[in-house]
Design a protein that fits this description.
14 helices, Rossmann fold, binds adenosine-5'-diphosphate, D-amino Acid Aminotransferase, Chain A, domain 1, single chain, four-stranded parallel β-sheet, 3 domains, binds magnesium ion
Amino acid sequence: MAIASDEIARIVERYPPVPAVGTIGSHSAIDVADGAVAEGLASVVIAQTGRDATYARYFRTLWDAHGARRRGCVDEVWEYPKFADIAAPEAQERLRQRGVLFVPNRAFSSYVPLPAIESDFRVPIVGSRAMLRIEERSERENYYRLLETAGIPSPRPFPGPEAIDRLAIVKLPHARRRLERGFFTAASPEEYRAKSRALLARGTIAADDLAAARIEEYVLGPVFNFNFFFSPLGPRAEGLELLGVDERRESNLDGMVRLPAAQQLELSESDRIPEYTVVGHGTLTVRESILEEVFRIGEQFVDAARARYPPGILGPFCLQTCLDHDGHPTVFDVAARIGGGTNIHLALGHPYGNALYRGPMSTGRRIALEIRRAAAEGRLREIVS
Ligand SMILES: Nc1ncnc2c1ncn2[C@@H]1O[C@H](COP(=O)(O)OP(=O)(O)O)[C@@H](O)[C@H]1O
Ligand SMILES: [Mg+2]
């Protein structure tokens, strides 16, 4: 059974006046840690043995003789054999004892089973616990449902491969690397059959995933990932902020588009199917006349989330869009938590966040600021679930 919000509220009310900020050591952890220390809070990163050096060594806080930070922003690294160990009762108790407010990222919701997060993880989460599940496309109550309710444009789905009559993208997990993608595109049922046969034979995709895959219209246009923040602490009209916009580098898709057409055609048949594995991010701004529509869909999302998953969005969220030929954003993916590309404004801030706050404002820092504000007013329970 899902943990009652009252229970989390009672836990957070016993927290020390200055809580610490914790997150899983992957994804956007450096942004979160950097933001925490920038706002005077301690940072705790949960690392997995064997993939801990980034946090435990290279971004680890080093202190000078007077106890001031000399370098780095990861104050404490708690190493476990597996990320999922953070959900064990003793680990949860350690988090509560340390007064850790937990920032959920995609590594958390991927490596810790969702039922454990929803029903067992009795640590205050800065964000919406109930909305982590909507990212799973296989769920009936997924983000497509929410976008539809919200009236936000998303790519038109095809009921099956036979209905493909224009460029479509087929979304399914990779057969072996389950957290990666086995996406492919097809413009006709014939192309769908040929490509899926090749990918099945190569072991990139599995037949049962293919049968359950989401097939949707491919939106021809640049990808803009809008990193928003919603605060429930002030008036509703001031709640929504746009902090920054990122785009992705995806291997080997980006390698391919950097080739002149003649060389692309020389690629072997198997190299011509791009992989959408995210390997990095870049920063963007958007034409100003498009911003109003961006804010409109942000507001619609916040309202729909509040109605369907009360109390709704708390803190950061990301709407991943393609801008179509007329510059209208079409939302193809949603993160109801910190997005994967916020390191673009890590420590520096982003033009939009900085314009709002008159100084460097990253997503990590905005989260920490929200915690400080809520703590100062005795309202921590309103920003956690
Ligand atoms: N409908 C679409 N039209 C065009 N490109 C798309 C579409 N959906 C996804 N993509 C591309 O595939 C990438 C990954 O898609 P996404 O839905 O975000 O998958 P995931 O849930 O695995 O993050 C995007 O960054 C974008 O480049
Ligand atoms: Mg995505």
